[in-house]
Amino acid sequence: MKRGKRYLENAKQVEKNKLYDLEEAISVLKKTANAKFDETIEAHLKLGVDGRHADQQVRGAVVLPHGTGKTVKVLVFAKGDKIDQALAAGADYAGGDELVPKIQNEGWLDFDVVIATPDMMGVVGRLGRVLGPKGLMPNPKAGTVTMDVVKAIEEVKAGKIEYRLDKANIIHVPVGKASFSESDIADNYRALMYAVVKARPSAAKGQYLKSVTISSTMGPGLKLNPIRFTEG
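RESULT FIELD:
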């Protein structure tokens, strides 16, 4: 893969085989996140589990104390009064069965998070093939299947993110923007790490945190020392 001149210049500031402390890594990241837009700071956690086994799945959600820096659009599937409650709480869209053809047939996906009341999961299930691959299916573990739609919306708008394993047993999540202060990025990162360590499956054997890398959207990755988070 051919890299641009700016990336190569930034990569010179990163020591390839070094395990950085969090504060130093964030300091370097902020210097290298110099694109013309506010780059997202992302964490990539490789775990010592096998996600193909149900008892080794790692999935959940955490509210980042300083949010993600992104405006999140929320769609709520509900009935009756719950629709009004959702809209009053700040949902961008709320409704029921009438939303299915719009998503299924028209390809409407102008939202980032889907919340559903349990009695609507039969309806939402029909959209599994569309929402599933995009990571948009509501899930009880992530707090997005609930009767308390107001609380769910407030948490999402406040910076709640969902984390889950990909096929390579890696979790990829945003922990802020390059414009955030170093301490705010560090707070968000720690909140994520503690949540993931707490979610360690009992079936996981050996080293749980195999590697931890943080990077900006356009910049090189920096490897962090995961040792301090290996003890729950």
